[in-house]
Amino acid sequence: MINKSLKQLSTMLAEKQVSSVELTQAFLTRIDQHNSSINAYISLDHDKTLAQAKLADTMLASNTASALTGIPIAQKDIFVAKGWKTTCGSKMLENFIGPYDAGVIERFDAVGAVNLGKTNMDEFAMGSSNETSYFGKVQNPWDRLRVPGGSSGGSAAAVAARLCVAATGTDTGGSIRQPASLCGLSGLKPTYGLVSRYGMIAFASSLDQAGPMAKSCEDMALMMNVMTGFDARDSTSLNREKEDYTLEIGKLDKLGADKPLAGLRVGLPKEYFTEGLGPDVAKVIEAAIAEYRKLGAEIVDVSLPNTMLSIPVYYVLAPAEASSNLSRFDGVRYGHRAAEYTDLMDMYCKSRAQGFGAEVKRRILIGTYVLSAGYFDAYYLKAQKIRRLIAQDFAEAFKKCDIILGPTAPSTAFKAGEKADDPVAMYLQDIYTIAVNLAGLPGMSIPAGFVEQDGKSLPVGLQIIGNYFDEARMLQAGHAYQQSTDWHTRAPEGIL
Amino acid sequence: MEWEVVIGLETHTQLKTKSKIFSGSSIAFGAEPNTQANAVDIALPGVLPVLNKEAVKCAIKFGFAVNAEIAPRSVFNRKNYFYPDLPKGYQISQFELPVVGKGSLTIQVGDNEKTIRITRAHLEEDAGKSLHGDFEGMTGIDLNRAGTPLLEIVTEPDMRSAAEAVAYAKKLHELVQWIDICDGNMQEGSFRCDVNVSVRKKGSDKLGTRREIKNLNSFKFMQQAIEYETRWQIETLEDGGTIQQATVLFNPDTGETRSMRSKEEANDYRYFPDPDLLPLDISEADKEAAKVEMPELPEAMKSRFESQYSLTAYDATALTSSFSLASYFETTVSSIGGEAKLAANWVMGSIAAKLNEQDKAISDSPISSFALAGLIKRIADNTLSNKMAKEVFDAMWAGEGDVDAIIEQRGLKQVTDTGAIEAIIDEVLAANTAMVEEFKAGKEKAFNALVGQAMKASKGKANPAQVNEVLKKKLTS
Fold this sequence. Notes:
The complex is a heterodimer of chains A (496) and B (477). With 496 residues, chain A is α/β, with parallel strands linked by helices. Chain A is built from 16 helices and 11 strands. In chain A, a hairpin with a 2-residue loop joins strand 10 and strand 11 (456-466). In chain A, helix 5 runs parallel beside helix 6 and helix 10 (310-325) crosses helix 13 (377-397). Chain B has helices at residues 53-65, 162-178, 219-238, 284-291, 298-308, 313-319, 323-336, 340-358, 369-380, 386-397, 403-410, 418-431, 433-440, 445-457, 464-476, and strands spanning 3-14, 73-74, 76-80, 90-94, 103-109, 112-125, 129-135, 138-142, 149-155, 191-201, 211-216, 246-251, 256-262, 272-273, 280-281.
């Protein structure tokens, strides 16, 4: 049961083959068994979780249910949830109990989804390996010695290890897609503004976007139907008509089974296939592209000439925003306050020095520096200009193609500790994903195969980038691939 | 050597919206600490600002009032600094692109008019308050004020004396109340001025180094602070010293200004556009919506008073010194249906004197504009002499009732019946034959004496003009 897709479980719940309480209990039992080693969850509250499952069962009994009613979901610990400890992976918020619900949490609650717990993450979503979490590293279920990616590493590991049906993640520079790639699951970062940021603890406001992490594109479409929608409490939320993300997938079944993607123009950016891409990963991606050709897609070459600039631009803009966003954690009103201090300045310094980890401090320092008088123009303003050029690259590319395909990450999961002391090597993990955030475009990663290493199968993710609001079409393209391949159905050895 | 002082003002006006600039909390003054601070105001993790459109409308109205450019697109920036009463660790303000651009305000100093250029006005949020001394060894934080909408209005360094600075501040103070965007309450901090003062040798076109006097919340203190600061700067320079750019505070007890922090200690605020807020776009429709709420402005109203009510420039200026005074005057006149000059005299005379004496605002006047109109009607229709009217006015002020009730009670009705007046005069003439003879012999004084006798006989109620007329007729017939 725990290996079934969200869609299958939804049908089982609707047909009363299983109750939400039974399903939820099954996952809680697994969590109790495996979480101590995998460490995917930071906070669990079985009573709260089961109470939600009971409520879902009454909804299922009273015909007020929808696709996600009674489905156990894991929530990244970046979303403030009422009554739940909300840590954002930081000592700063170690004891912070959410006093209100984030927009995303409200939406899941409203349809009767069940919150299994809050998942581990890099501290304040800053990291690509989940190693910066104050609550300890997370194991990659495919190879326990390796990292799950980050920052949504806990959510990725939870889905991969079947410790939830699906999970939420957030993606500022690749934090949904890269862990999805490294853990062999499907993850989608929607167009900026589609999912409310209200109650999602801010890292870099102009880049942050929440999205689903699940076992298939079909499941992600169901998650998207719940997560998206206008929220007046977020000024960057887009007020547009609500979409049904399963519609395009549904159409696919009626299209020719032989060449279901006929007419789809798939762009391959030449900058994504250079020496930076590991040869074993490249091979998997090339096979995936061949599969797309088989499915009827037309392959075209495109260019994203400013790709290499996306990392330096990102590491100016994201820390700049973060340095300001994290100023509220000052020990005055909530969060960690040093036990002893001599005066106000000492209280600030000690509380923040103790409450934040090394990577967070590094980014606050970078951000403070680039915003300083005398440096602002050379760094922040210049980066903003290049950001516009990067968006322009995509606009040009989408004149020639409907979706872009490429690798999600340059490598498979690396070993814990391997890059922890080399921030630049770590930052390069996001070389293929960051530009998408800078442009505000939707991007997703789906499993495309495996690379054998140290006797383990390590998953490789295929990235699909779409134009603004093209999520439904991207999910359709992903679904077609998942209909003709079975990479997405594989589970890590020994986990079931 | 002759020195010249150069002054520019930055004024924080608290906008009269119902809720805060980026949250739904009330901004009412005086609530228990932290009862008007919601999740957004205390900057809980994850909360986001949403701009209050009413605050924008206030800014647009101000732009109209000072004839300024209203930016079709302006930007909110974050001003980053740490302080316990600043919950987010940054203040949302506007920096490079303010909502209101260049404008001007004309002030009157003595007999001279002077136009003060306004550089800009921008929207921002207020901080909370630190409560020192309420807790032993600790500082309390009250975040009720955090997020209160402010419009910061900045002038060019156009003022050349404390008197000009105060005249500008008073004019601005009146204007923001006139267009109903600020309650003007200086005690509660709704209108606070920072004054930049520098001195230079007369004739020089280079600005001296300025010091900024922070947070002046009374015109009297502003006058004192500028005068002290000017003297201090001149003395410092004449003694061979130099002025360091600094922020200073005025101590009303000593009458002195004292440096709070120097430029070296100044924060680097690391301004950058707030990514949580979209640029503020103001459409023509937004401007139209604000325009319909714009009252007639003081200058226009003054001109209209001169032509419509045939008032002197002096009267028209005095009556348009505040919106409430002007509307009090106008409702009085329209309620009478005329007699504008008489109404003007009463409003600026007896009413103003009483208000002044009791330190009251026109809105607190115990005599409403309608009640005053009633009194003036009784003067106009000769029921009351001017002298009687004064007595009735005092009684009305004391709350004894409306004009007719007081006339009735006190039997103050003026005698205007010609027959009754003739009867009184006949009696007076009969009883004072000697005076009549004197008058007829050419002694003009005797006439006045006879008028006096007639008024006395009527107990002051006879209409003096009629007494004159009837007496003259009888004596010359």
